[in-house]
Amino acid sequence: ASGCKIGPSILNSDLASLGAECLRMLDSGADYLHLDAPCSSGRSVFWIFLTQGSNPGLSALQADALTSEPPGKAQHFVPNITFGHPVVESLRKQLGQDPFFDMHMMVSRPEQWVKPMAVAGANQYTFHLEATDNPGALIKDIRENGMKVGLAIKPGTSVEYLAPWANQIDMALVMTVEPGFGGQKFMEDMMPKVHWLRTQFPSLDIEVDGGVGPDTIHKCAEAGANMIVSGSAIMRSEDPRSVINLLRNVCSE
Ligand code: DX5
Ligand code: ZN
Question: Cα(163) to centroid of ligand 2, in Å?
């Protein structure tokens, strides 16, 4: 896709130095920041169980947390917690008005954080289709709060569920790992979703998130993704600028 944008995910960075890490990414040429905000917010009705397969990037504890939560018991949309709107507000103050914040809201009941995130300085509110009963109302509320709308689907969710909303959103996020942790293995079998969306909605921004790096960017580009989230591949590199450039170049070919 032409004009691909690269958004580093800071989930795998040193969260105690979040501001500095975001600055490092922006200085390295990041087009936007993908901020993963999983937090505790009530009962997840739509917890989807999938086996993780081989995930060498995960500790046993993380892999277990992703698959072992019983239905109805899940208090979090994902088995992890990072930060919420107070931290986003601080980041906005430190980084200034320019950087684009794509909030990946891995939360149950995403309705409750729209206003706080808007006030804190988020630019885009990306919520999970599986986490709400009323996507239409939520989309409207996000817009009324002055943010762009991103709609995410987990690997187990068929893209047909997203399609009815595609004309009302700015961006579709096709998860290429089970959300919750950085450093997992890219799920290539999600690419048909991206390709289908690209064919049906030529001007829609399509984001991929999870396991994307120099080894997997070709598949994403081929399928038609144009917003590329990459966490560990960029964060763990000694030369993040060259990784970001490589991803952008391959994707824009
Ligand atoms: C997964 C998060 C991703 C993650 C990506 O739950 O949504 O944004 O941080 O990290 P990598 O690129 O390491 O898979
Ligand atoms: Zn994410």
Answer: 20
Any atom of ligand 1 within 6 Å of the Cβ of 179: yes
Query: Order of strands across the sheet with 5-8?
Result: 5-8, 227-230, 205-209, 171-175, 148-153, 124-128, 101-105, 33-36
ipTM score over 0.95, yes or no: yes
Q: Which of 213, 212, 165, 168 is nearest to 190 (CA)?
A: 212
d(CA 49, CA 71): 8
Q: Which residue from 101, 102, 169 is spatially nearest to 135, judged by alpha carbons?
A: 169
Q: Ligand 1, atom 4: nearest CA belongs to which residue?
A: 182
Hey, which bits of 58-153 come out as E strands? 101-105, 124-128, 148-153
Query: Residue 251 has what DSSP assignment?
Result: H
pTM score over 0.90: no
| Domain at 24, CATH number | 3.20.20.70
Does residue 31 contact residue 9 with C-beta atoms inside 8 Å? no
Distance, CA of 236 to CA of 251 (rounded, Å): 20
* Choice from 104, 175, 181 to test ligand 1 binding pocket (greatest atom count within 8 A of CB): 181
% of the chain at pLDDT higher than 90:
74
- What range does the domain containing 34 cover? 5-252
241-250, pLDDT tens digit by residue?
Answer: 999 999 999 9
Over the chain, what is the mean pLDDT? 88
Q: Is 212 in the pocket of ligand 1 (CB under 6 A)?
A: yes
Q: How many domains does the chain have?
A: 1
Question: Is residue 213 marked as binding?
Answer: no
